[in-house]
């Protein structure tokens, strides 16, 4: 009887153990770069050189373009930023200042004398110039310094593999969570999925590389950088695109220029 029980039980035990082993192996975290290293790599690739950027902005619903605008972006030390939005051929009618080191975002609209400082919640919920990008999205916020990592896993598309990093903001008044994707082979930024504080997916940002004309005052050349940002907004069924057309690298007096008060009179 004991021999018969052993014959029945032992094979089942071995099969059960093998099944557990297979299941456990499938759920193991991928061995790869440290999660913080991935966020630092994202920040490094998305960091803008000091200088003046000339941007083209458009918004589409389906295949129909419903808005086009120009923007000049001035970038100083520590990624302090001035944006100047305008319709083609017009002067700036919205100015936007961002300084992550001072945790300040502020806007000034044409016809208004009041500079509005934005709270973290307002900076996420208010859209910049009617695009799918919020002021927070355009502020140059660093992921490594402002988010904490939950998990890292592999994500596979038809022809590529990506690191997929689950992160949550330290400031709970912004987004609920973000899913950040980097190409496994190059560690180049690929995409971010944005979720609301209630867990609903709000937007997807796609990052595109390309060659940009660069004028460093000595010569003109082309440089491959992050050239295009595409933000898909599911709530409003629209997509906004910001594309860098050219970059002029010039010395900018940071301490004097990059401050909120200059929104009142600074022109592009």
Task: Tell me about this structure.
This protein has 5 helices and 13 strands. Helix content is 19%, strand content 43%. A hairpin with a 7-residue loop joins strand 8 (161-169) and strand 9. The longest helix has 26 residues, at 2-27. Strands 1, 2, 3, 4, 5, 6, 7, 8, 9, 10, 11, 12 and 13 form a 13-stranded mixed β-sheet that branches. It has 268 residues and is of the alpha+beta class. Mean pLDDT is 85; it is low at 1-28. The protein has a single domain (35-264), classed as Lipoprotein localisation LolA/LolB/LppX (outer membrane lipoprotein receptor (LolB), chain A), CATH 2.50.20.10.
Overall average residue pLDDT? 85
Largest sheet: 13 strands, mixed
Structural class: alpha+beta
Number of beta-strand segments: 13
The rough form would be described as: globular
Which ranges are low-confidence, i.e. pLDDT below 50, for 5 or more consecutive residues? Answer: 1-28
Reading off the top of the CATH hierarchy, the class is best stated as: Mainly Beta
Q: What is the CATH homologous superfamily assignment?
A: Lipoprotein localisation LolA/LolB/LppX
The share of residues in helices is 10-25%
Would you tell me which CATH topology applies? outer membrane lipoprotein receptor (LolB), chain A
At CATH level 2, the architecture is Clam
Question: Secondary-structure element sequence?
Answer: HHEEEEEEHHEEEEEEEH
Measured on Cα atoms, how large is the radius of gyration? 24 Å
What is the number of helices? Answer: 5
């Amino acid at each position: 009887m004991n021999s018969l029980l052993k014959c029945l039980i032992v094979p089942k035990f071995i099969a059960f153990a093998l099944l557990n082993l297979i299941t456990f192996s499938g759920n193991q975290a991928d061995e790869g770069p440290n999660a913080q290293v991935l966020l630092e790599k994202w920040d490094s690739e998305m960091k803008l050189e000091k200088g003046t950027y000339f941007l083209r902005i458009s918004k589409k619903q389906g295949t129909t373009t419903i808005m086009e605008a120009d923007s000049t972006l001035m970038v100083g030390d520590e990624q302090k930023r001035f944006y100047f939005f305008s319709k083609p051929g017009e002067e700036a009618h919205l100015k936007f200042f961002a300084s992550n080191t001072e945790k300040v975002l502020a806007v000034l609209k044409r016809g208004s004398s009041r500079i509005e400082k934005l709270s973290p919640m307002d900076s996420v919920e208010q859209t910049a110039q009617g695009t799918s990008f919020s002021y927070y999205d355009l502020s140059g916020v660093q992921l490594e310094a402002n988010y904490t990592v939950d998990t890292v896993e592999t994500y596979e598309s038809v022809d590529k593999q990506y690191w997929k990093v689950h992160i949550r903001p330290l400031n709970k008044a912004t987004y609920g969570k973000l899913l950040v994707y980097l190409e496994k082979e190059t560690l180049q930024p690929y995409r971010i999925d944005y979720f609301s504080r209630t867990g609903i997916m709000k937007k997807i940002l796609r990052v595109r590389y390309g060659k940009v004309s660069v004028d460093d005052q000595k010569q003109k050349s082309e440089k491959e950088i992050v050239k295009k940002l595409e933000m898909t907004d599911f709530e409003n069924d629209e997509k906004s695109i910001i594309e860098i057309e050219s970059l002029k690298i010039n010395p900018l007096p940071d301490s004097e220029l990059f401050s909120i008060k200059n929104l009142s009179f600074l022109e592009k």
